[in-house]
Amino acid sequence: MSNTDFEGKQKYYSDYRMDYPDEVIEHVVDRFDLTEDSTVLDLGCGTGRIGLEMSQHVSEVVAADPDTGMLEQGRQAADSQGIENIEWKQATGSEIHHLDRKFDVVTIGRAFHRMDTEQGLSNIEEMLRDGGGLSVLTSTEWFKRGTEPWQDTVHEVVQQRFDDVPDRTGPISYDMTRTETLKSYGFQNIKKKESVETKRFSVEEAAGYVLSLSLAPASSGDERRSLTEELKEELGFMDQLSQEIEFSVVSGMAPD
Question: Could you tell me the CA-to-CA distances from 180 to 24, 173, 174, 250 in Å, in that order?
């Protein structure tokens, strides 16, 4: 069994993390001319949100993650949707070379910042077919980075309930952008696609999202209900919360 920061939180991750918009998935499909004969590796797949969507466009998806609980949630989601062309593998970015396969595209979602970049990207280069490439998908993380007043209230409540909760710091910047990182490893013809959607949350969904984070303790349904009720009280019984979510895809062709 795995032992990760998400131990005991995989169901919350499956139920309360956001899906990527259709246009984000379609951008990856169009960018690499994926067809029903193509294969995709979804690395750091979590509960398989990207892989489940990509499976509708290609022949096969291999969904890899070190967390067996995440993989099990993904399998259950695939079974419930009748999806049969995903192979679930326990592996990190440093271990994927053991798959001994070639892919048309490797996708990485919100796991990119957790990856051993040097080893992972080197392995990815070796696993891409000629003409293949890498797509890194990201979206706004509102709990620590968002700017809406209601998010401040959620953060304050959570800081009172849990230990070692990081401060809210606003929008994040990296020493190297995703584009610069891909360039530094030789990926070519790099493009960035951005989109913005207004997402609406119930208070229960906001509580579930918080409990899916690595900073949260493993918890039961009672914890979610208790957190939801406290948030409703502190937020003045607001029914709907909204946030502009920024989605981006940075993709590049395999090095020569």
Answer: 21, 13, 10, 10
